[in-house]
């Protein structure tokens, strides 16, 4: 052993994004909008869904909810109303808006495959996507801050 830390092939070594990946960028969140604050809010019992029961939702309906004031997305076949989560996303609102009104599964998995979306967004789940996606985002798309 050479005694250096981290070891050369260790997963703790900072990796360089692959050819189809954008470098990760985090933004400074406003006070009160940390991941811990989100965990508190999502466990508080406040209605973050905006619906009374889970249901099947078609992609055409998801596509209508593509604004910062009304933002839905599909991840792994589940539909989430992420409107309340926008301010808490470590990558910023613009990054999350890349999947607004779309199936963001590929983008989500390419950007951070180690993150469990279901546990973070459980309080925002509004239903299940009833059809295969035609509007799936790609990891190489440019961020759209205009929505």
UniProtKB/TrEMBL annotation:
UniProt cross-references to PANTHER family, sorted A to Z: CYTOCHROME B5 REDUCTASE 4, CYTOCHROME B5 REDUCTASE 4 FAMILY MEMBER
Name of the protein described by the UniProt record: Cytochrome b5 heme-binding domain-containing protein
InterPro entries, per database record: Cyt_B5-like_heme/steroid-bd, Cyt_B5-like_heme/steroid_sf, Cyt_B5_heme-BS, Cytochrome_b5/Flavoprotein_Rdt
Species: Coemansia aciculifera
UniProt GO cellular component terms: cytoplasm
Similarity remark: Belongs to the cytochrome b5 family.
Annotated region described as Disordered, given as residue ranges: 1-25
Pfam families listed in its UniProt record: Cyt-b5
Polar residues: bias regions: 1-13
Taxonomic path: Eukaryota, Fungi, Fungi incertae sedis, Zoopagomycota, Kickxellomycotina
Domain of life: Eukaryota
The keyword Metal-binding belongs to this UniProt entry's keyword annotation: yes
């Amino acid at each position: 052993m050479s005694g250096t830390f981290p070891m050369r092939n260790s997963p703790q070594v900072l990796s360089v994004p692959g050819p189809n990946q954008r470098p990760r960028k985090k933004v400074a969140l406003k006070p009160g909008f940390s991941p811990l604050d989100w965990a508190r809010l999502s466990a508080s019992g406040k209605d973050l869904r905006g619906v009374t029961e889970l249901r099947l939702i078609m992609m055409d309906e998801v596509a209508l909810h593509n604004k910062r004031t009304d933002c839905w997305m599909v991840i792994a076949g589940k539909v989430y109303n992420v409107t309340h989560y926008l301010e808490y996303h470590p990558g910023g609102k613009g990054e999350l808006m890349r999947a607004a009104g779309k199936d963001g599964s590929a983008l989500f998995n390419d950007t951070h495959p180690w993150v469990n979306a279901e546990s973070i967004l459980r309080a925002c789940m509004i239903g299940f996507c009833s059809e295969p996606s035609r509007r799936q985002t790609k990891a190489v798309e440019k961020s759209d801050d205009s929505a």
